[in-house]
Specification:
Helices cover 38% and strands 16% of the residues. By secondary structure, the protein is α/β, with parallel strands linked by helices.
Amino acid sequence: MEELYFTGIGTGAGAGSDDGFFRIAAATPAIRVADVEGNAQAILDCVKDAASRGVGALALPELCLTGYTCADLFFDRTLLRACETALNRLLAETLELPILFTVGLPVAHGEGIYNCAAVCCAGQLLGLTAKESIPNYSEFYERRWFTPAPFNDIYMTYAGSGPIPMGARLVYRCADPGMDSVAIGVEVCEDLWVPEPPSISMAAQGGATVILNLSASDETIGKAEYRRDLVRGQSARLYCAYAYADAGEGESTTDLVFVGENLIAENGGMLAKTDLFTRDMAVADVDLDRLLAEHRRSTTWTRPQFVARGVNHVQFSYRGGSERRAGEREDAASNEQPLAPVKLMRSALDIDRVFDCTPFVPADRGDLAERCETIFGLQAAGLKTRLAHTGTTRAVIGLSGGLDSTLALLVTVRAFDALGLDRAGIMAASMPGFGTTGRTKNNAETLAHSLGVSFREISIHDAVKQHFADIGHDPAVTDVTYENSQARERTQILMDLANELGGFVIGTGDLSELALGWATYNGDHMSMYAVNASVPKTLVRHLVRYAAGLYGGQIEETLLDILDTPVSPELLPPTGDGQIAQKTEDLVGPYELHDYFLYHLLRFGFAPGKIYRMACRSFAGEYDEQTIWSWLRVFYRRFFAQQFKRSCLPDGPKVGSVTLSPRGDWRMPSDASARIWLAEIDGLEHA
């Protein structure tokens, strides 16, 4: 591995890689009511500022060219003509700017005046998205001035451009190479607040990944939180990024106050918002790869009924109407390749966004406690149903004193309590082997007694030694046979105990171990119900810690010591001072890295290079780039090689959005090749 590459990760091809991130913004320019020329300059300043920040799409407020509060001035021909002239000027002065932006303005056509968003890019007017839902209640009187968007798109000439479409459901799709994920829908204020917003068809039928909303939302008590929930919810429903630009200072305060809160949400999460009573710009790098992954995996959000009011696609280029920007010349006699498009798609190393190191674990402690309680409830409910269905009143668990078996025991206790069964019907079996330490054995016994479950210690030393003799294995050779023989002997004991007691074996393995194949086939890999099968290791810790706080006393003390114990299968002899010699994370890598890789691979189907670059940002200062690269390669190699173990997993409850059940979320052939994924990882070394 070349050291030069890892010290230069932030520059060169690594930083220039396209990971599907696209920068969008929402801003509130400083305007004056009816001062069209002055407002045009404020809009131009805003557009230039956004372009200088690398923004690819900018939303500006509703009717910002005139001011939302012009009232009967909207009928005035002078104002209407001034808007067309000002828009023409804006197009001319943004010819060299690679940014799509919206300008809110009134547009007269035929017998109607329409509340429109002029969608502009690189000197071109691409279309006029007209407001569909015109409010006429409470403080809003828009039907006095404006006509709802036409049911069928109108083609017209405006601001020296034409024919261009005017309608409510236009999707502006980038035709530049490598930017096909940039599909932008536009809606105007009230259109978001109605039962069926136009953005539904734009996303579900038109494939929009970004929605820009031009709004003039006056402020009243409690409205801000409702507005934020609305924007978050729409971005979640439509698997899109949603930028909401709000009118602010400069609007008339005759009866209303506008506070300029600009919002950007992505798939239900708020990425950026500005403070009330400011004119700040909200800027965020949205992940179009992630949004497209959601589009592709969901089979229910594209529905035939959306064709009732069709979506019109408008193609555009960040180079404007020609293949060359100003000052560039094409030699007709040459065979040179077309110039590369303007670079607006971004690498994970070149964005203003932080990715959570533990995507399975909520950062907010209040949310975490609620999440832990829900997960415990789901695990226990699944086991409770299985126990009731089979008429089983006994359960057997191999209790090692480690995290996973501890969580499985805590879940089983909950299930028994919910069924009104005696906890003594739970048999916790400690099966010390060649690597078992006094610390883990004592913790297992103490926890079992504290919880009031049955406890039994069954040494596997003699049985495994006899097995070695039977197969002719030298006990001094501590290889995989030495380790797995112990795991399989323990499973045999548990299965036989379950038969003897008329119960069944509760599995202890977690999602992270299943991803890495860190389980002995037909050993700890097998059970009769796997309660931890969809719980990753990073979350197991929080669940056990949460349980410790609930119980308190001796149980809390024991659980905290278990949390402090290194993760280990304890299959190799301990050190001379009796300490654990075999530490899992030294062998397969840090679970926080593997859980990070697993989440982004399974949840969104991200490529290894993107996951790597994201991880370099997330874990900067904790792991160097070479370490992340090395464990990423281990992850992919093991993930593909160990699928055969996951293909025959026992049943277990799904508790999160990422699981590896072969009957549900993850269908993969056991002999799939990892070649192209590993090749991409190997290529990162020379990026």
